[in-house]
Request: fold
Amino acid sequence: MRFLFCTLASHGYVYPAVNIAQQLLQRGHEVAFVTGRSFAEVLAEAEIERIPFGPKDGDSFAKRFFGNSAEIVRQVKHISYAHDYFDPDVLIGTPLTFGPLVAARKFQLPVATIGYAAYLWPTTNSLSGFLPTSGREEFFTYRHSRMLSIFAEICDLFGLTVSRESFSDLDNTPLIGDMHLLRSLPELQGDVDELPERVHLVGDCLWEPPAKIDTELEAWLDKSPEEPLLYVQHVSGGEGIPDYWPNLVGAMGGQSVRVAAAVNQISVDIASLPDNFFVRPNIPYASVLPKASAVICAGTTNSVLHPLALGLPLLLIPIGGEQPDVAHRCEQAGMAHCLYPFNVYTRETMPENVTVSMLSQTIQALLSNDDPVRLKVQEMKQALAYGRDQATAAVLLEQLALEGSYTSQKVTC
Reply:
């Protein structure tokens, strides 16, 4: 069988898709990708074909334009070219990739979506009981309605019939396709029974290219191996969202803790940083996490699942996207401490949550051997290791290819 992956051109989408593609290859199937040209080399090194955007190639699947009509039309055209070339049995997209959802209707193919570590859309029984609660129901309803409007608009452009009356059926939203592969496990998700029948828990689906040797980083890591090591993946927010980075430097600078930080989208005077800080725009997980004591990050799916796979406790500081949803899941499961500098539901800024004092206090708890989070993440490490051996995603996709529609029985690792 042939499976065509249609992913936004971003590590957070391409890398888990490569993991699932490799599962399928090991089971004797054919796979190919349509995504931006920036990932051509990565896919080639993984020995996976990227189908170009036409004979002369071109760019598509830009993450920053995910909801732009013109960009989604480009996605559909790219998939159409790949359809004629590859003749897939199944299309596989992501929650924000509208192209494969539309193309699946155009070519009458089954379509699956690879999700995050949290389910983004409202369900019949899920619009209560979350923290922070203020404005959450309105936000979830708005987000779902907005994405449905984009989907319907593109379907109209291609002359495809969409029943807008069905949009109120939350458990059968067209945004997840015929099957949604949630990158989670019952230990993290918790309320599995609230999920729609088309949603299946498939484990972490982690993958990244082999890390290149970084002699400077290795030398820095070897300087004081007896000190705890914090891995920080910093993401700056938009205008008005409090940035915790200066306060983190104030809290940890000069302490008996080493801080290896991937700091992007921010101007950092490296020369002025304390000696216990090592900063780069990007630091591969494999270069630091095996030596780390704990992790601070925003709460994107990959940044959370990589540490959990190694049993590392988390401090999550979410500001947008799927981050608050993933952070909530981790916090409810006892696998993370969370500080909220911004309430995505009410657009309220809360700088008092990321002061020097708050960061110092929370990090001390994070590094303590008595912290209950440490026990929980060890349990998750074992669960993820077991689930990784099941090839659950590949088995489900095979079933989708054979049946052409979603299974009525929920499957988990």
The chain is about 40% helix and 15% strand. Residues 136-157 form the longest helix (22 residues). The two ends are 23 Å apart (CA to CA). Confidence is low (pLDDT under 50) at residues 127-132, 406-413.
